[in-house]
Write a structure and sequence with these properties.
Layout (H helix, E strand, L loop, with lengths): L20 E5 L7 H15 L3 E7 L24 H14 L2 E8 L10 E8 L4
Parallel strand pairs: 1-2
Antiparallel strand pairs: 2-4, 3-4
Length: about 130
């Protein structure tokens, strides 16, 4: 079984370059929005994984948890609506050679969507 590699989303590590899959499971919301671009630039421009999977809370679902305007965790720097996530994903695919698909995780509410959003970025193959 291949060795797993752990690293930072802010500090370059040559050992993380060209790996098959990166998974950021409930990670990005813990990064200040103004620093998120730096992390994604490192991942998409330097590491260039074949696939990058990102999950993040859906802010719209929080009302079902009776959170009002509060976030789900004290350390969250932001939580995005489905539209905000879509806008960010479109920006990422415009900037980097990746295509993306967005899906839902968890029970879907007709008005608010699911509790968790998942994005699968796939590196575009150059022919």
């Amino acid at each position: 079984m291949p060795m797993q590699k752990w690293g930072s989303v802010f500090y370059y590590d040559d050992g993380l370059k060209n790996k098959d899959v990166f998974i950021l499971c409930e990670v990005i919301e813990h990064i200040a929005e103004e620093k998120l671009h730096t992390a994604m630039q490192l991942i998409f421009q330097e590491y260039k994984p074949a696939v990058c999977i990102i999950t993040t809370p859906n802010k719209e679902y929080n009302t079902l948890y009776q959170l009002g305007e509060s976030m789900r965790h004290y350390d969250h720097r932001f939580e995005w609506t489905r539209a905000e996530l879509l806008a960010w994903v479109e920006k990422m695919t415009d900037m980097y050679a990746y295509k993306a698909s967005i899906s839902s995780i968890g029970e879907v509410d007709h008005e608010r969507g699911s509790p968790t959003q998942i994005v699968v970025f796939e590196k575009e193959v150059m022919v």
